[in-house]
């Protein structure tokens, strides 16, 4: 008797770069990074059901921003297994597309995990995973990490981070990641300190992060000045310990001490900026 086919669901959490230092450039043009990556308890959902053919349906509030074509990272993730079997994949899209919080990479990572469970096969090798996107390895790891290399070198944090809540704000502009990297004034910026200190409170974390940077902020802001306005609006909310851009933007995050202050800030920002995407979420441990 064979087991009944099962549907597998995986959550694709938004990734947030608490800091992102660009420390060099490889001969192939890819940039060397040194970044602290965490995840928000907020994201897309991938569901994979048994089927003869491979198919992708996109639903959810952000579905309009994305085509379900062969270039979609979810279908590219399915092909990374080699010759894929069939699966009816549904992507419930809640994160804005191309917004610096790893939506596409998180979807690809969640699809890899869901399909490996559905098909009872191991994950593709590390090279195939990285070729899907520089943020796919960290999204596959799914826990806070220091990310180096072009995204493939991951180390767990030496000490747990303090509890924190995030407010994510996207001003509904899309910035092109390659052009943001091209706009960097320098590519040899200093890395993070070799040893990450123990950060016991949100104040400790914010103080440490204030001494770090997102090197992509300046070129992203030059292309889309509204990013500076987002940071100012976030930073002015009661309880906001730090406001910074994530990834290559345009989404910015604010760090808050509790769910109440994050929810109040999100409420105030939505009321003032009706066109912006604003969400509050816990920082996942
Ligand atoms: O890997 P991913 O598709 O997310 O990268 C998008 C683009 O961002 C790359 O084509 C490259 O131009 C740039 N990039 C980079 N260095 C990295 C990651 C991305 O130059 N480490």
TrEMBL record:
Enzymatic reactions: 4-CDP-2-C-methyl-D-erythritol + ATP = 4-CDP-2-C-methyl-D-erythritol 2-phosphate + ADP + H(+)
InterPro entries: GHMP_kinase_C_dom, GHMP_kinase_C_sf, GHMP_kinase_N_dom, IspE, Ribosomal_Su5_D2-typ_SF, Ribsml_uS5_D2-typ_fold_subgr
Keyword hit for ATP-binding: yes
Pathway: Isoprenoid biosynthesis; isopentenyl diphosphate biosynthesis via DXP pathway; isopentenyl diphosphate from 1-deoxy-D-xylulose 5-phosphate: step 3/6
One example GO MF annotation: ATP binding
Positions contributing to ATP binding: 96-106
Active-site residues, Swiss-Prot/TrEMBL: 15, 135
Protein name per its UniProtKB record: 4-diphosphocytidyl-2-C-methyl-D-erythritol kinase
Species this chain originates from: Tabrizicola oligotrophica
